[in-house]
Amino acid sequence: MKDPRVLKLAQLLVNYSTKVKEDDLVMISAVDPSAYPLVEELIELIGKKGAHPFVQLNAQVIQRKLYMHATDKVLELMRESELAMAKKMTAYIGIRALENKFEMNDVPQKQIMKVTKNYRKDVSDEIMSKKWVTMMFPTPAFAQASNMSMEAFEEFFYNVTTLDYAKMSKAMDPMKELLEKTDKVHIKGPGRTDITLSIKGLPAIKCAGEYNIPDGEIFTAPVKDSINGVIEYNTPSVYLGTKFDKVILTFENGKIVKYEGSSPEKLEEIFNADEGAKFVGEFAFGVNPYIVEPTVNILFDEKISGSIHLTPGRAYGECDNGNTSSIHWDLVMIQTPEYGGGEIYFDGVLVRKNGLFVLPELLGLNPDNLK
Fold first, then answer.
1. How far apart are CA 303 and CA 217, in angstroms?
2. Quick one: which of 23, 331, 321, 75 has its CA closest to 193?
3. In angstroms, rounded to a whole number, what is the distance separating the alpha carbons of residues 86 and 129?
4. Helix or strand or coil: residue 115?
5. Separation between Cα atoms, residue 290 and residue 12, nearest integer Å
6. What is the pLDDT of residues 36-71, one digit of tens each?
7. What is the largest CA-CA distance in the chain?
8. Helix axes 36-48 and 4-11, enclosed angle (nearest 10)
9. Closest CA to 213 of 134, 138, 128
10. Which CATH number fits domain 4-161: 3.40.1830.10, 3.40.30.10, 3.30.1360.40, 1.10.10.10?
């Protein structure tokens, strides 16, 4: 028996996120078989619109083997093939239903970085120039990482992913306006966090269900050389197959000059991937009212209500501060009282305290007003 929640999610992806129209060429890319029920619904909905669905199915166990044995020749052929297909598409829907979050954990980090640097970036850039959306799909692995039963996790998942994104988008308008008028940002938070940066002259981008599901963030980027101070992230992160805890970064004139945390050797490889890996490409606020604790899944955790993320690596094209890199690592700091609290100031004015916005025009973004 089909789960009606899967159809509702497919309708959101097709009708709201990518706004598929007649004759669109839509790539559906799914990782691991758990996503297949959603893929089936998407194919049917896209076909009914007179558009053309294409499907790319992957499995992590196969990707792991490919990563292990990827030669420069193979990577170049893969890049050429996928880039040619991406250029023909007008829309992209990416679904990750990972059945083992740590499947890539024993792949040498240098090999992962080789694949990311030489293959993934060009394809990713092309996809992001089109209508696109990426999402996670519930699996036992995600439920286990969140310390939930599968039933409880699915209920959480569908609450989080199918909320009223149009309402959220409207509530984001005053925040977008304020961000685009702001120069100096001062962040105080848990542990040693005390950091300043400038966002002067950079646009603010609302994320309310059009590019990521679940969604609920508004982002900009720092002036590349403006960050000074220390930030102590208090949310676990799985990146390139490795779990990191309590990453602490020290900045001088925009550049990471010291990094601390678990797996120091892998941290070194990440931040030495290229010059841009030591600079930041994104600064964002999480506002999804149904996400209040880490799930160790970045598509959820970067939207935690009361959080921010300051992201080492590549900037997005729609908010380009000039930083290019093969990495883009969303590291999250939660500022709710349960996680140590904190304050954020724009040009000396308190904007958010302990995870809640305090300016009258921003109150609509607090959890009680978005549910």
1. 6
2. 331
3. 10
4. helix
5. 18
6. 999 999 999 999 999 999 999 989 899 899 888 888
7. 57
8. 50
9. 134
10. 3.40.1830.10
Tell me the β-bridge partners of 251: 229, 256
Structure tokens at 304: 């935690």
Sequence-separated (6 or more) residues with CB below 8 Å from residue 360:
none
CA distance 185 to 219: 13
Print burial letters for 291-303: b (CB count within 10 Å at least 16), e (below 16). Answer: bbbbbbbbbbbbb
Pairing of strands 194-198, 228-232: antiparallel
Distance between CA atoms of 273 and 269, rounded to whole angstroms? 6
CA atoms within 13 A on the CB side of 23: 0
* Domain locations in the chain as residue ranges: 4-161, 165-370
What is the tens place of the pLDDT at every residue in 306-315? 999 999 999 9
Closest CA to 219 of 289, 309, 313, 331: 309
pLDDT band, very low/low/confident/very high, at 78 (cuts 50, 70, 90): confident
